[in-house]
Design goal:
CATH superfamily of the largest domain: Protein tyrosine phosphatase superfamily
InterPro entries: Prot-tyrosine_phosphatase-like, Tyr/Ser_Pase_IphP-type
Distance between the termini: 10 Å
Number of strands: 14
GO molecular function, one term: phosphoprotein phosphatase activity
Helix content: 40-55%
Structural class: alpha+beta
Shape: globular
CATH topology of the largest domain: Protein-Tyrosine Phosphatase, Chain A
Pfam family, one: Y_phosphatase3
Number of helices: 13
Largest sheet: 5 strands, mixed
Family: Belongs to the protein-tyrosine phosphatase family.
Radius of gyration: 20 Å
Strand content: 15-25%
Protein name: Tyrosine-protein phosphatase
């Protein structure tokens, strides 16, 4: 039985939805349990339900101070552990565990080792406790110096190693600042200039994603990121920018690609930011319309803020066209060594 991934989501009505991605026509019956232990063999688990469906929903109260995990128990197969894909953390909307994705060589990314997110500046007290209980050993911030100065991350724990690896993504930084009503003017002027040249927001975002592949600042930032992540002493690791979409999205596309996650799952993982901020997106589009009084400018600004498959696909296509595979790109341009590659696999993968 091949399961590409299983994941849970918090729904608006207080229910939890479990999604199981598989090519199987019919799943065998399974028992679903929940636990606070990141261990598929734990004895400390509580029964929820029995089903054979690939999607189930149920009323559930999750822990507000630490990750909740779920276990699928099949009669003739190994149990499968998974968790909430988008973690319910007050003050953050895009904190995600990348665990559970099946690789093309029959492995699976471990849960609870690498997280991606939006910035931590707005963490509420209970959210602060939740993030502290992730047991992080490193936080990598992809934001630029001005962003970090204006909206610094709180100190979660002095023992956590913190790194700032800035790929100099001006478009992403401007889009982030435009989320504040008082800082959108620069972006509006840029939008007017671009539209006058016949350019769209999509064009600018695609250029940015392609520039990540080879710009000196980007190569340095993402090389450093891979080398830190390859050291087990820095795991678990949380890596973020402002919204957790573009800079973080490129970094995780590279990491997951090195680990042989199929390209369709790379795009799927990138696109989860759209799900994470669907309500926020609707609010900001209306805000852009009110700010500008011009639909064309608002559409341009919104494109920089939105999550679209063609953005990450542009960088994947450029990498595969010029280097063959993401692994070859990482070895040729990011300086990934064989020992670092093996360390990443040992730390982050388990048998599917």
């Amino acid at each position: 039985m091949k399961i590409d991934y299983a994941e849970a989501y918090v729904l608006d009505d207080g229910q939890t939805e479990v999604d199981i991605k598989t090519d199987e026509q019919n799943l065998p019956d399974y028992e679903l349990y929940w636990t606070l232990n990141n261990d598929k063999y734990t004895k400390e688990k509580k029964y929820l339900l029995t089903s054979n469906k690939t999607q189930v929903s149920f009323q559930f109260t999750y822990s507000t101070v630490r990750p909740t995990y779920f276990i699928l128990n099949f009669k003739n197969y190994e149990p499968l552990l998974f968790g909430y894909r988008i973690l319910p953390v007050p003050g953050m909307y895009n904190l995600r565990d990348i665990g559970g994705y099946r690789t093309s060589d029959g492995m699976r990314i471990k849960w609870g080792q690498v997280y991606r997110s939006d910035y931590l500046h707005n963490l509420e007290p209970s959210g602060y406790t939740f993030v502290k209980n992730l047991g992080l050993n490193s936080i990598i911030d992809f934001r630029g110096a001005i962003e970090v100065k204006d909206t610094p991350d709180p100190v979660i724990d002095p023992a956590i190693h913190t790194f700032n690896f800035d790929p100099n993504a001006e478009t992403a930084a401007i889009a982030g600042r435009a989320q504040n009503l008082d800082t959108g003017k620069d972006m509006k002027e840029r939008a007017k200039e671009a539209l006058a040249k016949g350019e769209t927001g999509n064009d600018q975002m695609i250029r940015q994603q392609e520039s990540f592949v080879g710009s000196p600042a980007s190569l340095e930032a993402f090389s450093n990121t891979i080398k830190v992540t390859a050291q087990s002493k820095y795991l678990p690791s949380l890596q973020h920018c402002r919204g957790g979409k573009d800079r973080t999205g490129f970094g995780f596309m590279v990491l997951e690609g090195i680990l042989s996650v199929p390209s369709e799952l790379l795009v799927y993982d990138y696109m989860l930011t759209k799900r994470a901020r669907v309500k926020k997106n609707a609010r900001y589009y209306q805000k852009f319309l009110q700010q500008t009084g011009n639909k064309a400018i608002a559409d341009y600004m919104y494109a920089l803020f939105d999550t679209r498959a063609e953005f990450i696909t542009a960088s994947i296509t450029k990498i595969t066209r010029e280097y063959g595979t993401i692994y070859q790109y990482a070895t040729n341009k990011l300086g990934l060594t064989e020992s670092e590659y093996l360390s990443l696999r040992k730390s982050l993968l388990e048998k599917a």
